[in-house]
Fold these 4 entries.
Entry 1:
Amino acid sequence: MFKFKTEPEHEELVIRAVDTYKLANPHRYNDPDGYIEILNDFFNQEIARRTELLIETEKNDWNMRSILTHISQREHLIDGIMDWGWTYDPRNATLGLPTLLPIIPFPRQIEFLEWLYEHYLRQKRGLVEKSRDAGATWFFILMMTHEWRWTEGFAGGIGSNKLDNVDQKDNPDCIFEKIRTYIKFMPPFWMPHGYDKRKHDKWGNLINPEMGSNIVGQGGPDIGRGQNSRENFRLDNRIFQGCQGTDRSFFRE
C-alpha cells in the first residue's frame, strides 16, 4: 500500500489546520467576523512561514537543489504541497479571506492521494463519487502535475462532458486553469528547464520539455480517442445525469 513519508512539522501543520477549522466553523453563520478573524490569523501565519522559507531557499543553489531533490520524490508530495502549493478560491473575496490560499490537505484528502497513487502505480482503475468542495479534482491535479513535472515521459489525460470544462483560458472553473494557477505560484526554481509558457502551455495541452511529459484535455465523445496508446493516467470528470450534488470521476492507468 502506497504511503507518503511526511515530515513531522507538516504532520503538525495538518493537525493545526484541522483544529483551526474546528474552532472557526461554529462561528461561520452566527459570528462571521469571529470566523474570519480565526482563519485570517491562521492563514497569515502560514503565509509568513512560506515567505520566509522561500527567502532562505533562494539564498544559494545548494538550498534549491536540496529542496528539489526532496519534493521530486512521490513519497514527499505532501511536503512539497505544504511548503510550496497554493490554490485559488474567488468566493473568499466576499468573506474577507485571502483568495490565494496555501494548500494544507486534511487527513482524508491525504488518504485520497494515497489511494490515487496506489491505483496509479498498480495500474488499477478507480471510481470516485465526490461531493462538491471536497477538493477531489484539485488533489487529482496536484498528483498529476507532480508526475508531469518529475516523471520522464509521463502522459496524462483529462476529460469532461464538455471541452470548455477542461480548458478555457482565464476561466478559473475549468481544470487546465487550475493547473495553470498551481504552476504559476510555484517557486521559479521548481519550473522545468526550458519551459516557455508561450510554447509549452497550449490549449488543452501542457508540455514539460525537460521530462518529455505532457497533460492533454478532451471533451464529450472525443474522450479517450487517439491517446490510449500513450496515456499513463486519465481523469474522466464527466457529470452523469440524475446524480445530484456529486460528480463521478473515473480514472484509468
Entry 2:
Amino acid sequence: MLDAQHLECIRACQECITACQVCISECRQGDTQAMARCIALGIDCSDLCKLAANAIARNSEHMDAICALCAQACLACNEECLRHAGLHCQRCAEASYYCAEACHHIMQSHVFQHRLHLRG
C-alpha cells in the first residue's frame, strides 16, 4: 500500500506531466528554434515523470534510480523554463521544481528505511 509521501510524489509527477505538455505545445507555436532546448527538456521531463509515477505506483525495485533521474530531468527543465517569460514556462518551472523535490523526498525516505533495516 502506498503511503502519503508516495501518493504525493505520484500527484506531483502527474501535474508536472501536464505542465510540460502545455509548455511543449505553447513553445511549438512560437519560434521553435529559439525554444528547442525548452521543448526537448520538457519532453524528457514529461517522459521521466510518467516513468517515475508508474514505478512508484507498482513499488518498483528501480524506483529510487528512476526518481533520481526524474528529479535531474525536472531540475534541468525548471532551469530552462525559468529563462523564459511565458506563463506556460513559469508554470512548468514551478511544477518541475515541485516534482523534483517530491522525488528527492522519496529517495531520502528509502535511504533512511534502508539504514534502519541494516541496524535492525
Entry 3:
Amino acid sequence: MELREVLSSLAVGNGIACGPDLMRYMDGGHTHDTDRRKRPRLALTWTIYLLRSTDTRPLESKTKNVSSEGFYCCVRERFVVGECIRCTVFIPTRDVEHPDECIFLECQATVVRVDPIAPDHYGIGCHIESYKMVTRARRTVSLAAT
C-alpha cells in the first residue's frame, strides 16, 4: 500500500495528514495500542468523592479523565478490580453569574482497573453503571445524612 492511498482516506489539513490509521501505517501496520476503551476520554479535572460499602466517609479525589461511560482518578487507598462503589462527581456549570455552582452526578460504578503509581497511591479506572443528576439542595441533605 502506498502512502498516497492511505492519505487519500484521511483528513488532510494544511498539508498535514490526520487520522487514526496514519500511525499504524507509519509503524508498518503494527499497533501497540492496548487501550480497550470504547468511548473518547476528555482530560477533565473534577472533584469526585468515592464511597465503598464498608466506608463511613468518602475519599476525595480529582478525575484525570472522563468519558460517557467512566472515569480515571488517583486515590491513596488500594481498590480491587470488580469492587462496586458509589461516587459523586462535582461538575462545574461555568455559569458566569454563579462561578461556584456545580451539578452533582451521583453514580454507581465498578472498578475496572487499578494501577499502582507509588506507595499508597493508586490510579483507578471505573465504569459507570448508573447515575442520576442531583440538585444542590438535595445533595446538602444527602451529605448531612451520611
Entry 4:
Amino acid sequence: MNDFTAQKQTGTSWFSWIVAFLKHIRRRSCQVSIFSDSEGLTRLITYKDGSVVEEAMKWCDVVNVSAFKRDLFAYDLVCLLFEDATKRFEVSEENVEFPRLVNMLPSYLPGTLDKEEWCEKVYLPAFKTNWTTIYSRTNTDIQAIQIQETTK
C-alpha cells in the first residue's frame, strides 16, 4: 500500500490525499527516449526504479502523423505525434533523433509532407499550437496494402 492509498483509507481530507497522490506521481517520474529505423519507432520508458518498458510502432501501422507546438511560456517546442490503431508516440525537437526523423519521414511514410511544406505552418505564429496533419493513411491506402500483401 502506498502513501496516498493509506491516506484515502484512513479518512484524511481530500486535499491531503491529492497532495500525497501528486507526490507519488512525481516519484514515479521517468525518462522517455524514442528511436527510429526503417522498421518503425521504438519508445523506451525508463523509470527511476530502473524498470524499462519498450514499445514499438511499425511504419506500416501508422495511420496519422501530426506536427504541432507546445507553448512552454518562454519558448515553443515543436513536436510530432505518431498514431496507430492502439497508441500514440510523441517526439519533440528536444529528442536527439528528431532532425533525422523529420528528414527521413517521407521515405518511411510515402505521402508525408516534406519539412518545407509543413514547417512554416507549425512555426508561425509563435505561441500557438498550429496543429498540422503531415501524414494520414486513408482506408483506400490500407486496402491497397492488404491487397498487395495477399497477392504475394
